Predict the 3D structure of the following.
Amino acid sequence: MSVKTVVIVSSLLNMIIGVGQVAITCSIFDFVVMNRQFYSMPNRTILIESKWTYFSNLFASLNMLVCMWSLHRVYDNVSKGYEQIGKWARMKHTLLSLLHLLFLIAFTAAALYLCINFSLMAQTVGMFTENSEPIQFQDAANWYYKRLYALAIAFVGDTSGEIRSVLKLTNNSDSRQAFKVKCTRNDLFKIRPSTGMLDYGETADIIITFTCPSNHVPESDRHHFGVYHIPAPEGSTPTGAWAEHYGPPQGEIRLKVFFQESKEK
């Protein structure tokens, strides 16, 4: 394989990976930074580490320089003809050509490494976001992900006493829904109301009360709440709708439970 072919293939690969890297980076940083969601609750997992900011800016700038250098060299050599390429390789520019090729391969590998890590980071961020399928990327530039939604409930305060938390449920479906909320320990948590009915667009406040038994705080990430909902016909009650329903619920979500002392906040 000739040096010219390797340079062209490496340049194209570098630019393709670079475009993917820029797209993924923009979507992540636009959502996280613009919405100030630098970490996720309740365990404050860092979604975007500061080191990736420096790596992204550094390698993006270097990739741009190497790509422009590649385009200049390829255009210059093609304009001189294939015979001139062989003559050019045999002249004093051989060392410069090898140096250029090594830089190109190195930054292609660096761009691929960053692109893979940003893809994994995007997947991690996606776990804390609503699904979004924009038609065009520019439509998603400002709001690639719509907003964070809760995957956990954190009880913050004096965990040796009684703590209350409010869970908001909103019916975003196109029909009337009956819901119920369950927990793994009825002696630890009280749910009011535990069942109810929601019309389209309606929101209900579910009050959850945690009571610590014998001053022994349960371990975080061991309990969860389950929220279930099914379609409910007009005139039905929550109890009646669930009694007449057969099969699994139409939708469900599990919310992990975390405990945090107020002094740690």
